[in-house]
Amino acid sequence: MKVLFLGDVVGEAGRETSRIAIGRLRQKAQIDFVVVNGENAAGGNGITPKITYELLRYGADVITLGDHAWDQREIVPFLADEPRLLRPLNFPPNTPGAGSIVVQGNGKKLGVLCALGRTFMTPQTDNPFLTVRPVLEAIRRETPCILVDFHSEATSEKIAFGRYLDGQVSAVVGTHTHVQTADGKILPGGTAYLTDAGFCGAHDSVIGRDVAPVIQRYVTILPQRFGLATKGLQADGVLLTLDDLSGRALEIEPIQLAI
């Protein structure tokens, strides 16, 4: 099984980048499933129903969210009706939407779930280390192939979560910091791991935002409007090769595709 995961899609530039990247890579790499983190897709803050369908139309099978899940008001009722759009599973009980899904295609099944870290993160949520267990048990009854998007700030929390799930899932890929890390590996139990996938969008920037106002904020500490950058389009992510029967990762290939 081949799975393409794309890091945080940032604004319109990120959406266009993901469209091109999915189109180029799906056939070239014979990809079975595409998972995209879309939590910055609407002007850098959250996602809308319209943009959700846009990313699905581009070829995403599942879209994950994170701490910006609720930034766009219209997404709250929409989450309850669109199972391919996931909010973190460790949000409080009775929160609209779901944190996991099993998708099917090409005679194969892939479980996808997302969770939100707690170190240096808001909002404060339930403990992902504890809440992930029952979700995994349910998914494993349908498929051994499981991808986890862990949306978190602290490198240590991401590494610990990857080690915690080693041998229980196919891959743990971190998101949120928008900077792809160079630590892609397959852990001893057969789980592929990458601390952060990076982001899709304008890389001639400060993690997707215009450079000048960010520098001005650091220099003066005065409020600035952080507009979205538009140049240097690049799609960051990871290509995973999984064993269909065992769910073990066979290969992890980080991607930085200039558009």
TrEMBL record:
Entries under Pfam families matching the protein: YmdB (PF13277)
CDD domains in the cross-refs: MPP_DR1281 (cd07382)
GO molecular function annotation: 2',3'-cyclic-nucleotide 3'-phosphodiesterase activity; metal ion binding
Residues that bind Fe cation 2: E39, D67, H151, H176
Active site, renumbered: H68
Residues that bind Fe cation 1: D8, E39, N40, H178
Top-level lineage group: Bacteria
Protein's UniProt name: 2',3'-cyclic-nucleotide 2'-phosphodiesterase
The organism's taxonomic lineage, starting at the top: Bacteria, Pseudomonadati, Verrucomicrobiota, Methylacidimicrobium
UniProt cross-references to NCBIfam families, sorted A to Z: TIGR00282 family metallophosphoesterase
Keywords: Metal-binding
